[in-house]
Amino acid sequence: MAKVVTMGEIMLRLSTPGNTRFVQSDSFDVVYGGGEANVAVSCANYGHDAYFVSKLPTHEIGQSAVNALRKYGVNTEFIARGGDRVGIYYLETGASMRPSKVIYDRAGSAIAEADPKDFDFDAIMKGADWFHWSGITPAISDKSAECLKLACIAAKKHGVTVSVDLNFRKKLWTSEKAISVMRPLMEYVDVCIGNEEDAELCLGFKPEADVEAGETGAAGYYKIFEQMAKEFNFKYVISTLRESFSATHNGWKALIYNGKEFYESKRYDINPIIDRVGGGDSFSGGVIHGLLTKPNQGEALEFAVAASALKHTINGDFNLVSVAEVESLAGGNANGRVQR
Predict the structure, then answer these.
(1) Distance CA 288, CA 308 (A)
(2) In this structure, what are the phi and psi dihedrals at residue 217, rounded to the nearest 5 degrees?
(3) Alpha-carbon dihedral sign for residues 303, 305, 311, 317
(4) For residues 100 and 276, what is the distance between their CA atoms, to the nearest angstrom?
(5) Is 198 a catalytic residue?
(6) Within 13 A of 298's CA, how many CA atoms are on the CB side?
(7) Which pLDDT band holds residue 223 (cuts at 50, 70, 90)?
(8) What is the Cα–Cα distance from 68 to 10, expressed in whole angstroms?
(9) pLDDT value of residue 207
(10) Burial 128-167 (b: 16+ CB within 10 A, else e)
(11) Which candidate in 118, 198, 281, 317 is catalytic?
(12) What pLDDT sits at residue 87?
């Protein structure tokens, strides 16, 4: 299998039990997660040699985050150790018409204050097949953005395929700052993943589709995908198309464009959603596995959409499914009968 490298922040997630509100809760459930860490876990589950690059403190909470990755087979040898804190995010899981809510407490985290000298990017990218990052990583801090750029340069030097999940986070930076940082980084990117909002806020593109009103017809994305592929020389442009009927009921499909042809996946009706945090990351992990192992972009996309549909049924940030489980769903087995 392939060597897949991801780089970003892994955080301590403190979530209210069940669907309780923050103000009701006397305790929190503890898991670890974060964009690129979630992708690394997915890739490890699919049998790839997955590496996660970050910086974490040497204390026990930092070690717990490292252990959470090791538990699922992620290689942690390139995680630098040092700094004072692990970023935290609090999650209140919504239901029906009440949306989920996230509160960040991540300022001054170890990765936000990491220095380029913490990482040997040549060693990290040597022999790698794929490097994945998201728009969250350069949003964390200017230092983090600098480290990421050096990682991208090393990836290109070593002939590594680079993918990005645009992942705009308004709580971390403004659209203007995002565009100024993200657009120059696109020169290193082969595979661009992002929904219609991310493309507009990170790159200044806007599709001709009213997604808020549920108009997620793929036709509205054709022109923007063609423009993005042409301007940034992407090999693939990919977007999920989420219909949000409620916090616990979504429609889910995706679209891919390889510069010549478009392919639209089948649609999944996800109801009830158990945990949608990490849904996009599970899609990215599925895209990486699909493009590395499948014979065409259509089969790659169907794998990714099925993988992310399954993630919505799993608590925590990580998508803990096997290739066989994803391929069973992608192949049409969605009845949920007990496997005996």
Answers:
(1) 13
(2) -60, 135
(3) positive
(4) 9
(5) no
(6) 7
(7) confident
(8) 10
(9) 58
(10) bbbbbbbbbbbbbbebbbebbbebbebbbebebbbbbbbb
(11) 281
(12) 98
Residue 188 has pLDDT above 80, yes or no: yes
Place of tokens 């994803």: 326
pLDDT tens-digit readout, 155-175: 999 999 999 999 999 989 999
Whether the pLDDT of residue 339 is over 80: the answer is no
Instruction: Determine the angle formed by the axes of helices 60-71 and 35-45, rounding to 10 degrees.
Output: 30
> 18-64 pLDDT, tens per residue?
999 999 999 999 999 999 999 999 999 999 999 999 999 999 999 99
Instruction: Give φ, ψ of 195 to 5 degrees.
Output: -85, 180
At which residue do the structure tokens 């969250």 appear?
A: 136
State residue 254's pLDDT score: 95
Taking residues 89-95, report their average pLDDT. 94
Band the pLDDT of 68: cuts 50, 70, 90: very high
Q: For every residue of the chain, which 3-state class applies, written as one string?
A: CCEEEEECCCEEEEECCCCCCHHHCCCCEEEEECHHHHHHHHHHHCCCEEEEECEECCCHHHHHHHHHHHHCCCECCCCEECCCCCCEEEEECCECCECCEEEEECCCCCHHHCCHHHCCHHHHHCCCCEEEEECHHHHHCHHHHHHHHHHHHHHHHCCCEEEEECCCCCCCCCHHHHHHHHHHHHHHCCEEECCHHHHHHHHCCCCCCCCCCCCCCCHHHHHHHHHHHHHHCCCEEEEEEEEEEECCEEEEEEEEECCCCEEECCCEEECCCCCCCCHHHHHHHHHHHHHHHCCCHHHHHHHHHHHHHHHCCCCCCCCCCCHHHHHHHHCCCCCCCCCC
Beta-carbon count within 10 A of 223 CB: 12
